[in-house]
Amino acid sequence: MRNRCPSCMTPIGYSRCRAIEKVLESVKVTCQNTKYGCKEAFSYSMKQKHGKACLFAPCSCPLPDCDFEGSSEELSAHFGNVHKYSATRFHYDRLAPITLGVSEKFLILREETDGSLFILHNKVENLGNVVTLSRIGPSTERGFFYELTVKAPSDVSNLRLQSFTKSTPKRVDSPQSLGFLLVPSQFSCISRQIKMDLRLGRSDRFSYYQRPGGA
Q: Which ranges carry the SIAH-type domain (predicted)?
């Protein structure tokens, strides 16, 4: 339907109105996320581009029974005040022991320093459990490097995943991921739990690791 009348489909051509374009370019608009803390003002033509990259895009609380929505910083504060004991706490760059139930769909992790929220996702498959890690935050946010290690109950073997997180503004059952770890059924203990160690840090601290698809 480009360059055609939407009613009769007759060609109507294309003509730019530079005067109107200049007027629109001079108009300054504010971000749609102003109420979440964004103070940016930009030309109308940049509205869509900024909206996709805004770091104040609203994020939702990952708990099923909570409808809180706010910036990633507001969400961190909310979770720390209201759901303090609903997450496994850890520190960047330190080894953190994690216990995940075989049938547990997800586990919320909260960093002690800045309150960032991460989700350890668990999906049961025929061969075992598929485990991935994501962060609750604006989708354009930089990833965090992490290393996830699972040991067999007998301690004779282990599995290891090194990857980067992808951010999502809300918890989803099947998030996009740069990597996953398939944990065979025999790696769970008698109590039907998976024991693992997690080390997570900001990506710029692990620049010596090659990103997936990098040269």
A: 26-84
Alpha helices in the chain (DSSP H): 18-26, 47-53, 72-82
Structurally, how many domains does the chain consist of? 2
Position 114 in a domain: yes
Among candidate residues 88, 101, 99, 107, the one with its CA nearest the CA of residue 150: 99
**Higher-pLDDT residue of 24, 130:** 130
Residue 215 lies in a domain: no
Domain range enclosing 163: 59-206
Give the tens place of pLDDT for each residue, 163-172: 999 999 998 8
Token pair of 92, please?
């960047």
Between CA 206 and CA 144 the distance in angstroms is 9
